Structures are given as C-alpha cells and as structure tokens.
Amino acid sequence: MVRLSMGCGGALTAPRVVLTAGHCVTGPGEDTSIEVIAGVTNLKSGRAIKAKSVTVVRPAEFVSETGGDDWALIKLDRKLDLPILEISSGGADETGTQTILGWGNTREGSMQQETKLRFGSVRIVPDGPCAKAYKKIVDLVEDEMICAAAPGVDSCQGDSGGPMVRQLARGKWVQVGIVSWGLGCAREGYPGVYTQVSKFRSDIREAARKLS
Ligand code: ARG
C-alpha cells in the first residue's frame, strides 16, 4: 500500500508500478509530478521509501469514477524492494469480508487526512441491492464495480485509489477492489463502490508488464 501526493492511495502491483484509481490521476502520458510514499504505515516515519512518477497509464474509456474503468497505473522512477499485491481473478474472492485501508478522512465532511494508515472490515454487497441503492443518482456499472459496506465503516475522501483486499485461506492477500466512490461516507443504505479489478486483471497485468 502506498500514499500518493495528490491525496490518494495505491498498491504496488509490480516492483515499479502502482495501481490506483483512474480519477486520482490527470490523464495518461508523461507525469513526473506524483510523489509516492511506500513501505510504511506512518507517513512521517523516517523509514518511508520515497519515489516519483514517470508515466501514467489510464484506459481510454475512463470518463469519471461513476462511469466505470476507474483504474490507472503509475510507473515509478525506480523499482521498489517491497512486496507486491496480486490482483484477484474473482470468484469466491469477491464474497464475504474484505479489508479496506487508507490515510483518508475518518468521517464524512472531515477535512483531515491521517498520518497513520487506518483499516476496516466491510462485507461485499451484491450488485442488485447496490444498484438499487444508487438508482436515483447513477446507474451502477455492475460488471466493473463491486460494492461493500458495514455499519459505520467505509472508505472516504482521500482513500481513493487504495486497495480493498481479501485474505486467502493460506494467509496470502489479494486485491479485490480499488476505492472509487460512494454517496458520502458510511451512510446507511449507500455502500462504498470499488473498481472490480478482476474484470481488468489481464489489461492491468499487460499494461504493467509493458511499463516494467
Ligand atoms: N472518491 C473518493 C476519493 O477520491 C473516495 C470515496 C469513497 N467513498 C465511499 N463512500 N466509500 O478519495
């Protein structure tokens, strides 16, 4: 898990590539403006590993977070000697309890970002009920989005781009989602919406391979 200077999260998907949300970056192409903090939970730690962006890849289809395709890759100026987070291929990973994490707001309307990484547990909400919850506001792109919620627990502003992860039976973690959007934060009846990364797994892997 990494922190990005524009105020988003991300995950190391290859030693030199960060996976984040499409809406966290300004577009594809050369971009040397993003600063990356990795390898720590406390952003002020002296052990923080710092890197900078070189280029950004974002699907041409991306328009805004509620339209789907909300993912992007950031190529770093060097390889980081840190574990990478694998992308789930879907199936049973996309059920049950998930962990969300980030340095974003701890409640809706708060203006403050956190120095220490926070995490919480949420449960997958099926597409049907999630689409119904948001029907009046926006049409859920069901095959590109996955929803999750728990009472009083949600991702929030500043958590975007960070991973939603699931721990497999063998103890290994896989990435199931990317924090994307929601109405407010932790509002009853309005789940958090995440990019369903299994849908983009081969595109992301292919793009990451080309960047490496
Ligand atoms: N779009 C937000 C960001 O840029 C993330 C919002 C997630 N909201 C939610 N209720 N889960 O940081």
From TrEMBL:
Residues 1-209 form the Peptidase S1 domain. GO terms for molecular function: serine-type endopeptidase activity. Coiled coil: none annotated. It comes from the Bacteria. The keyword Hydrolase applies. GO terms for biological process: proteolysis. The keyword Protease applies. InterPro entries: Peptidase_S1 (IPR050430), Peptidase_S1_PA (IPR009003), Peptidase_S1_PA_chymotrypsin (IPR043504), Peptidase_S1A (IPR001314), Trypsin_dom (IPR001254), TRYPSIN_HIS (IPR018114), TRYPSIN_SER (IPR033116). Pfam families: Trypsin (PF00089). Keywords: Disulfide bond, Hydrolase, Protease, Serine protease. Belongs to the peptidase S1 family. This is Secreted trypsin-like serine protease.
